[in-house]
User: Fold this.
Amino acid sequence: MALITCENVSLGYEGLTVAKDISFSINKGDYLSVIGRNGSGKSTLLKALLRIKNPERGKVVYGDGLKQSEIGCLAQQTPVQKDFPASVFEVVLSGRAPKRGIMPFYSKTDKKQALDKMELLGITNLKERCFRELSGGQQQRALLARAMCAAEKILFLDEPVTGLDPVVTTEFFNIINEMHKNGMTIVMVSHDIHCAVKYSGRIIHMDGGILFDGTVDEYKKSKIGAEFIGGHKHD
Assistant:
C-alpha cells in the first residue's frame, strides 16, 4: 500500500491555481524527485503532502499506517533560521518534538536519538556550538540530523543543496543514499534537474500539472527529459 496518495489534487496560493489534476502515489522505498521550473507548483505540492496546506480540490491520503510524527522534512532555510541563537544539539533535539506528545520535556530516548544522528553525520564535535556560527554545510548537516530525528518512514527534502559547494553537495547525497539503502523513503523537491537525475530513482516533472512520472532511465529517454537535460532549460 502507498504511503501517500494524491487523488485529483489542484493546488494554489493567493487565489492563483498553480497545478491541476495531480494524481500519483509515493510508495515505500521510493527515492522520488519532484522537479520543474520555479513557480511550477513543486513547493506548494510539498506543503500539501505534509498537510501544511489544503488542496483547492482533491485529497491527499496517508496509507500503510503512516503518521504525521513519522515524517521528517528538511525545508529551505529562512534568513531568521540561519541566524537562530541555539546550540546545535538544541536544534537537532527539536526534531523529536512531534514525538513528545503531552510530555513537557525531552526524554532520555529523545536525547540519545539526537546524539546518535549527530554522530552518524559527523557533527558531534559541534554539539555546543551556536547554530548561527556554523558554515552552510555544517548547518545543513545539523538540519538533516534534526529531520532524521523525526523521520521514521519518509524524509522530504526541499531544495536541500542550494548554496552548497560541489564537495559538500556530494557528501550530503552520499548520506541520503545510505539512508535510502537502509529503508528510508526519500522525496526531494528540486529545480536542479541534473542533480535529481543523478541521485534519485524516480522523477515527477511538474509544470501546471504532472508532465512526466517514471523512472530516471525512462525520463532520460523521454522527449521532455531529453529536452530539459540536454537543453539545460531549468532555473
User: Anything to note?
Assistant: The beta strands are 4-13, 16-26, 31-35, 57-62, 71-74, 154-158, 185-190, 202-206, 210-215.
